[in-house]
Amino acid sequence: MHRALVVQPAPAGEVLAAAGLLALLTVVSARTWPVARHVVTIVHEAGHALVALCAGRRLAGIRLHSDTSGVTVSSGRPTGPGVVCTVAAGYPAPALLGLAAASLLSTGRTALLLQLFVVLLVGVLVVIRNGFGLLSVVVSIVVVLAVSMFAPAVLRGGFAAYVTWFLLIGGVRPVYEVSRFRRRGRGGGSDPDQLAHLTGLPASAWVGVFGLVSVACLAGGTALLTGVW
């Protein structure tokens, strides 16, 4: 707690650059992305769950699957702003969390950032309803908590920078993937298609909205981390 309240020096420019490059390679690599995408799925489903609770819906739980898919089940009115916001919250969640992380990291709140990640993951853990999801979240908690408690300052800063860049960059790729799947006729049950049914707006318009939000968060996060803002 003491460490979380103390401002540490922001990661050096070369550390930020190396972390950004590593995050980019993680996202674009066909070898690492299928594993790393589980983290994006956790944040995606957490976004659904958080907005469902804020909208007054009854949250039944989250399930995460080994193919990197997930589902968040909530009950309430089948139509209306609450369910629309709940369904729409998933795809922007990783990029928005990355933007918030960049704002903390750029002001030297590295330890606080890592501890908040742990708190968020514990919140997700409470509503997980299957074994693989439980394993995924527990492993994530252990890794972040270990770095937060035992790693030297330089390593903590580099890890926090990597996770921040990964959320910012990794928030863009799922939007591209759902757009590609829809063009191939394989995205019938996707969030954009559900939103199209709920709102009457075309699913492609929702994909465009998600893309704009993700790219805007990436641009904003980059500006914060590089000192432009």
> Strand-and-helix sequence, N→C?
HHHEEHHHHHHHH
What's the number of extended β-strand segments?
2
Structural class: mainly alpha
Strand order of the largest sheet: 1-2
What is the average per-residue confidence, as pLDDT, rounded to a whole number? Answer: 93
What fraction, in percent, of the residue positions are helical? over 70%
Largest sheet, in brief, is:
2 strands, antiparallel
Nearest-angstrom radius of gyration?
A: 17 Å
Q: Globular, elongated, flat, extended or rod-shaped: what is the shape?
A: globular
Figure out the total of helices. Answer: 11
Low-confidence stretches: none
**How much β-strand is present in the residues?**
5-15%
Characterization of this structure:
This protein is mainly alpha-helical. Helix content is 71%, strand content 6%. It has helices at 2-5, 13-28, 33-54, 81-88, 93-105, 110-126, 131-150, 153-170, 173-183, 191-199, 203-226; strands at 58-64, 70-75. Strands 1-2 form a two-stranded antiparallel ribbon. A hairpin with a 5-residue loop joins strand 1 and strand 2. Helix 5 (93-105) packs parallel to helix 11 (203-226). It starts with a helix and ends with a helix. The model has no long low-confidence stretch (mean pLDDT 93).
